[in-house]
Hints:
This protein is 0% helix and 50% strand. The chain is mostly beta strands.
Amino acid sequence: xxxxxxxxxxxxxxxxxxxxxxxxxxxxxxxxxxxxxxxxxxxxxxxxxxxxxxxxxxxxxxxxxxxxxxxxxxxxxxxxxxxxxxxxxxxxxxxxxxxxxxxxxxxxxxxxxxxxxxxxxxxxxxx
Length: 127
């Protein structure tokens, strides 16, 4: 019933930009939060950014602050991740997840709260 589909990945030169999209359906979009995660080869999956209900709050990993921006178009049931100043270390499969931005002590606990996951979209930034 719940479908989560990422798109927008590709190969981008260092310093370039890319916008990922996450289209979600099968639930009341305004009731849940959406997060972006990434996993590089041989590494653990890490939270990148999360946007809370109706875009009222946004959270970012340290490596994403100042470079990435998460936004939501609720009318389209779509969340975006604008990535600027891309670096080779940003190379990873990026996943969109639906659930909750679990916040504790003012920080996003990315490892908890997400229920539904997309299949991922690959972002490659050559060194």
